[in-house]
Amino acid sequence: MYRLVLYVLLGLALTAVLFSSFGLLPYNPVAVLFSVFFISAVCLITNIVFAKVFKVPANVESAYITALILALIITPFSSANSAVFLPLAFWASVLSMASKYIFAIGKKHIFNPAAISVAITAFAFGGSASWWVGTLYMLPFALLGGFLITRKIQRSDLVLSFIATMILVIAGSAVMNGSDVFSNVWRIMSATPLFFFATVMLTEPLTTPPTRSLRIIYGILTGFLFSPMMHIGSIYSTPELALVVGNIFSYLVSPKEKLILKLKKVRKVANNTYNFEFASNRKINFRPGQYLEWTVPDDGADSRGNRRYFTIASSPTEKDIIIGVKFYPKPSSFKKRLIALRPGEEIIASQRAGDFTLPKNKKKKLVFVAGGIGVTPFRSMIQYLLDKKEKRDIVIMYANNTADDVAYADVLDRARDELGIRTVYVLTDLQNIPASWKGRRGRINPEMVLEEIPDLDERTFYVSGSHSMVSGFENALKNIGVSDSRVKKDFFPGFA
Fold first, then answer.
1. Can you tell me the distance from the alpha carbon of 104 to that of 116, in angstroms, rounded to the nearest whole number?
2. Average of pLDDT values for 475-495?
């Protein structure tokens, strides 16, 4: 997910250089490149220094993302504005990196780094961001990049609530002032950084609320404040101020922990699948099925970076924090570093989030559908029910390629014996099914669902697995009359 954001920002910067070369933007293309390199250098050096001082892994990818955002919102360097650009760009870069360490509580930063830095420089030095990326020529590329980011992290609820609020505020203001509604709305959409702000900055995972309902409120609040006519006395709202205020709301309603976890042991639970069991420096309160962002110390990370999202496979009733990880041929540098961890080594976990959790109504009938390593949230839920001795009407359909790929069978079989939770094991590789296999064969299809779950009209489906698996099963359910309202899909940014 972070790598996609980086690529989108690089694309916008290069587009700006190209458009400047053809006179479509009022900047010198060399000056735009200078701005990008200057801000990136300051951000990178500052980030490394603070990381060493605070003794935490330096996230180079994050520094580049913040640097590119700053380069796209601070007016590019020119001989005419050098006296303003150099101090503004320098201090905004320094403050953006420093904010991750200084404006942090429990080692969790509160503000979007780019937003808080330009907000501070505006008040302290009188130099403000122009948000020059918000022009008509840049709009198609901002829309395309923003769409890709929003689709990847599935934050359309946040983006749409923000944009809808912004449009309603502008339209309402136009009506009250007797001006043309369409022209006012078109101007705010085409000649401002609305879409760039909404899709690139507002969606930053570390400063975003953890659940859908809170994200919608966050979008509405920030959209209302984004309007330029909002002010307190002589202080008028700006995009950065709107986001800073929204970040405060997000922090108040979000989990506060940033955990330093020590590896206790690694245990193989299936073919190429391992449990990583960690001891936490403090208690973490989570609901079964939620996920965390994990960061490994790795200065030589590949193009996918050193951060991933993994569902917590352990139950809140268990002492240790467990994640289940599937390893494939040619693994990423992240997974290579993860498997190389030795007992006692540390990893950082933060940004607890997720709505893929058990319903409060204990009488609701459920179906859990898992594909491969997508079983991890169900392992957490089932272990929780076992430890609480809580019976629920649940049927599990669990698909894998081969019998050796089946993970957590011990927990699932115990749930069958103690709680009456039935698991339908399914193997999809028809050429490698053992003769002793007693489960189902082939892909989970509508016919199999109807045979195994005759009362499907009474049940809510929870589906977890790869994006293709989840989408395919969702379509299968539609074909047998299961409405979208009865299907919950597991998702976290950058499913790995």
1. 12
2. 78
Tallying the residues shown for the chain, one arrives at 496
Residue 106 has pLDDT above 70, yes or no: no
> What's the confidence (pLDDT) of residue 394?
96
> What is the token pair recorded at 113?
């780094």
Q: Which of 460, 456, 438 is nearest to 447 (CA)?
A: 456
Split at pLDDT 50, 70, 90, the class of 301 is: low
* pLDDT tens-place string over residues 15-73: 999 999 999 999 999 999 999 999 999 999 999 898 888 776 666 788 899 999 999 99
Q: Is residue 208 part of a domain?
A: yes
Pick the most confident of 105-109, 133-137, 482-486: 133-137
Domain boundary among 253, 284, 315: 253
In a domain, 279, yes or no: yes
Structure tokens at 385: 């029910």
80 SS3 class: coil
3-class SS shares of the chain: helix, strand, coil, % to 5: 50, 15, 35
Q: Judge if 58 and 185 occupy the same domain.
A: yes
Nearest-CA neighbor of 398 among 432, 361, 357, 444?
Answer: 444
Are both 224 and 307 inside the same structural domain? no
Check whether residue 85 and residue 229 sit in a common domain: yes
If asked whether residues 77 and 216 sit together in one domain, one would say yes
Count of domains in the chain? 3
**Cα first-last separation, the chain:** 11
Domain membership of residue 314 as a residue range: 258-353
pLDDT digits (tens, 9 = 90+) for 228-245: 766 666 667 889 999 999
Using one digit for the tens of pLDDT, what is the confidence trace for 139-152? Answer: 999 999 999 999 88
Residues 197, 72 within the same domain? yes
Order of all β-strands in the sheet with 307-311: 307-311, 291-295, 346-353, 258-270, 273-280, 321-326
As a whole number of angstroms, the distance between CA 155 and CA 308 comes to 17
Q: What is the mean pLDDT of residues 439-465?
A: 91
Domain-ending residue, one of 205, 234, 253: 253
Which of 304, 301, 284, 247 shows the shortest CA–CA distance to 112? 247
| Measured CA distances, 127 to 66, 90, 98, 325, 422 (Å) | 18, 11, 19, 47, 64
> Is residue 317 a contact partner of residue 388, using CB atoms and an 8 Å limit?
yes
Higher pLDDT, 344 or 331: 344
Does 234 share its domain with 337?
A: no
- Neighbour count for residue 140 (Cβ, 10 Å): 11
Bridge partners of residue 291, in order along the sequence: 311, 353
Residue 304: CB atoms within 10 Å:
17
Task: Determine the Cα–Cα distance for residues 195 and 134; give it in Å rounded to an integer.
Answer: 8
